[in-house]
Amino acid sequence: MSFEEEWSQLKADALRRQEARMRLAAAGDGPAPSPSPQHADLGLTDTPVRSKATGLRVAQGEARDKSKLDDAEAVGRTHSGWDAGVASNDCVGAWQKRLHRLSDLAEDAAAALTKGMDTQISEDVSIAKEIRKSAGWLEDA
What we know:
Blueprint: H1 3-27, H2 47-66, H3 72-78, H4 86-140
Helix pairs in contact: 2-4
């Protein structure tokens, strides 16, 4: 089949679909249901990802606020039987630094997750616009 023949067939098919929609519209009380490329719902939703990223940020902030043990010796003096000294302070300091680094990694992961999701949705929206443009062109053909 040549290009011209294929093109003619595609246009004839589009005209048949348009005529069928018109007949349905005339038979009913209102316009026939037709796909609306301008308002197509491609199922793009960012709510689950944003809620997880927000949850990570909240947990990270709460954990930082709760990790305020700066002086193990002072805590040891308030609890009978707890013997703490400089080594305990060094240990607590090292753990706090490690936990803060892990917290920073969680924050970075939440930021990367959000950025990746935004990029994916942006690409999907661009593709959807191209599909709508092509669909409009085909309907006009």
